[in-house]
Specification:
NADH Oxidase, alpha+beta, homodimer
C-alpha cells in the first residue's frame, strides 16, 4: 500500500524517453480494469510529437506540462466504436443519450485512473489536466474526435525530474459516512477544514491574492461562479453536438 | 504490473471479515489520489449493517452482491461540503452548475478506482454496480444524500470466495489512437470485435437470448434504446433536483 500512500502529482519531467513498449504495456494492462458490461466505452489518443503537443497546448491554457511531458494521453468516453459495430451487425444502437454518456464517462475515468496507478508503480510521474473539462470542444477539434467520442481525462506522463510537492488532504472523517450521509454542524465543517486553512502554501495563496481567507481564493480566483456558468453552457452545448443529448 | 494484469471482478465473497482498520486504511490511502484543485469533491458512504444492505439492495435491482458482500461503498460526487465551508467563510460558492458536477464526478471516479486498485492489491475482491447510474434517485434517498451530493460509483467489497471469471477484452489497437483519432473502416471494426464475438461465453449469450449475434444481445436485451432513453430522463431530472443544473 506504500506506493499509493507516497504518490505525488508530477509536473516536471526529465528528458528520459518513455518507450513505446512500456507505454503500450501500461495501456494494455489498464484494459483489465472494470468496464460497464465489458463494452470498453473508451479510447485513448496518444500525443507524442512536438507538433501535436504544440497544437494541443492552447486547449490546456498553455500549461507547460503539455509541451514538456514526453507523452500526453487524452482518455475519451467512446460510444462511436461500439455503435458502429452494432450498426454493422444489424443491431439498433440506442446510445446517443445522457445515460450512455454517464456509462462511457465512468468507463473512461476508471481506465484513466488505472493507467495512472500502473504508471506510478513503474516510477513514472503523471498529472491530470482539469482544463479538459473547460475546453473539451477545442481538444475534440485538435484530436479529430468524431460523434459519440468526448475527452474525459488528459494526463501528462514522463519520468519525474524532481519530487512533486506535498499537498494537504482533509481528515478521513470529512470523507467517510457510516450507513447514512451525515450532515455536519457548521462548527464541525470549520474543524474539518482547519488543517487545510493552516497549511503554509494555502496561507501564502490567501496573502498573494489579497483575500480574507482560503475559501475566497477558490470562489473569487480559481473557480469563480462566472467562469463555471460560462463553461457549463459550453460543455452542455458541446455534448449536444457530440451526439449525447438526443 | 502483474497484479493489475491478473485482476478479475469478484462477485462472491467469503465470510471473512473486512476489518474497520483495513477499510479505513484503504479509504485514507486512496485520498492521496489526484483531485481537482485539491478540493476533494467526493464522499463515501459505507454500508455494512444487514439492514442497510437490505434497504439499499432494491436500488441495485436486488443484485445478490449487495447483501452478500461484507462492505458496500457508495462513492459520491460532493460539492455540498465545500459549498458549506465557502458559505461559512463569506465566499460566494458558484458550484450549482454542470461544469462543477463534471469536476466532482471526475474526483469521485478517480477516488473510487484508487480504492479498487488498493483493495485488490491487498487481495480483496471488488465489483462495480452499474445500477448506481440508473437508480441514482433511489440510492440518494436510501443514503440520505443532501443537495450537491450525487452517487457516482457503487462498489461491493470483500474477500473472494472463489476466482472471478475470465472475461475477454478488445485488442489494444482498438483503443489506442496515435496523435489523432483514427476512424477505422467497417472491415477493420469487425476485425477488432472478432475475438469478442468468438469468445465462448458470448456465443452462449447469443444462443440463450435467441439473437442473431452478440451486438443484438447488447442492443435488444442488455442496454436497449428504450431503457436508455427512460433512464436518461430520470438522470437529468435527478441532477436538476440535486442542484447541479442551475
Amino acid at each position: 500500500m506504500n506506493s499509493f500512500k507516497t504518490r505525488r502529482t508530477i509536473r516536471k519531467y526529465s528528458d528520459r524517453e518513455v518507450s513505446n513498449e512500456l507505454l503500450n504495456e501500461i495501456l494494455a494492462t489498464a484494459m483489465r480494469a472494470p468496464t460497464c458490461g465489458n463494452m470498453q466505452l473508451y479510447s485513448v489518443v496518444v500525443t507524442r510529437s512536438e507538433e501535436g503537443k504544440k497544437t494541443l497546448a492552447p486547449a490546456h491554457f498553455n500549461q507547460p506540462m503539455v509541451t514538456q511531458a514526453p507523452v500526453v494521453l487524452t482518455v475519451c468516453a467512446d460510444f462511436n466504436r461500439f455503435t458502429r459495430w452494432c450498426s454493422l451487425r444489424n443491431a439498433d444502437a440506442g446510445y446517443d443519450n445522457f445515460i450512455s454518456l454517464v456509462s462511457a464517462v465512468a468507463d473512461a475515468s476508471i481506465y484513466a485512473q488505472q493507467i495512472v496507478a500502473i504508471a506510478e508503480q513503474q516510477g513514472l510521474g503523471t498529472c491530470y489536466l482539469g482544463t479538459v473539462a473547460y475546453n473539451a470542444p477545442q481538444v475534440a477539434d485538435v484530436l479529430g474526435l468524431p460523434s459519440l467520442v468526448v475527452p474525459v481525462a488528459c494526463i501528462t506522463l514522463g519520468w519525474p525530474e524532481s519530487e512533486g510537492e506535498e499537498t494537504e488532504r482533509l481528515p478521513l472523517e470529512a470523507i467517510v459516512h457510516e450507513e447514512k450521509y451525515r450532515e455536519d454542524s457548521d462548527e464541525r465543517i470549520l474543524e474539518l477544514f482547519a488543517e487545510k486553512e493552516a497549511f503554509p502554501a494555502n496561507i501564502g495563496y490567501v496573502r498573494e491574492n489579497g483575500k480574507e481567507n482560503l475559501a475566497q481564493v477558490f470562489t473569487d480566483v480559481r473557480y469563480t461562479r462566472q467562469a463555471n456558468e460560462h463553461f457549463s453552457g459550453i460543455a452542455l452545448d458541446y455534448l449536444r453536438k457530440a451526439g449525447f443529448l438526443k
